[in-house]
Amino acid sequence: xxxxxxxxxxxxxxxLSRIETVCEVDLWDGEMPPPYSILCDRVRGVDGLFSxxxxxxxxGVYEAAGASLKVVSNMAVGYNNIDVAAAQAxxxxxxxxxxxxxxxxxxxxxALLLAAARRIVEGVEYVRAGxxxxxxxxxxAGRDLNGAxxxxxxxxxxxxxxxHRAQAFGLRILAYSPSLTDEEAARFSVTPASIETILSEAxxxxxxxxxxxxxxxxxxxxxxxxxxxxxxxxxxxxxxxVDQAALYAALKEGRIGGAALDVTDPEPMPDDDPxxxxxxxxxxxxxxxxxxxxxxxxxxxxxxxxxxxxxxQPLPNxxxx
Length: 321
Ligand code: GLV
Known about the structure:
The protein is α/β, with parallel strands linked by helices. The chain has two domains: 4-100 and 292-310, NAD(P)-binding Rossmann-like Domain (Rossmann fold), CATH 3.40.50; 102-283, 3-Layer(aba) Sandwich (Rossmann fold), CATH 3.40.50. Helix content is 35%, strand content 14%. It has twelve helices and twelve strands. Glyoxylic acid binds next to loops.
């Protein structure tokens, strides 16, 4: 008998057919994620679960699945949606998709940095509103990148790929990671710095840490107070790394220069969130890895983790913490 798996969204056809060669597949192909109660219902008796960041995978899901569940394969590098400790306690393996989305996410970070620095969204809205009457020396004047300082908080794969791209624009890079050594920093031509130094010296602060109890609200009211009054905050990591109410207050009172957010808390951001009324704020809907090629690579990698898990092999990319 083929192992049974539940897949919580439609995925790239190449990944689906790879899974179908080995597994009996139940696929939820809704636009919205399966509600928690339906998720619990559909995982009953499965060997494997292919999940997304929009699925809360906790002890209740493991309980509902029962003893057959061997693997949860998350189609994401982040896994803060999953109770990893509860999975490990039951011997359930967890897979993620590091590496394949590094470039796409770093590209998007630079897109946000450039868009905020050069006021691209304001410019688009200005033209669409029919306000473009003439060229003017002060019209929508933004900020130079060359010679400015970018602070990178979280210097893993994505942080490093951002540094590499930003160096081509002439940005000086300050980087923080708890494990960053002087040798590593030298190898990537960045200056190691504390979070405090980054906050007080950077013109652009970009977040690339995972969401953990330690990083939740890392950028809080106190951190925002330390930032330069024209600094721009870019977040392509996880929304709750930033205290969004404190961010709104800092922006509203002109204590920082702007923000560009690919991730929010909660997601989706409610339509009436006051941040959406501020001209110096850009919000996009969690698009870090959203290229067709990257999403296919993620789906294939997650398929391989799933197949390994249900066939009793070690996962090619297992979450070990
Ligand atoms: C997306 O946010 C991911 O973690 O892959």
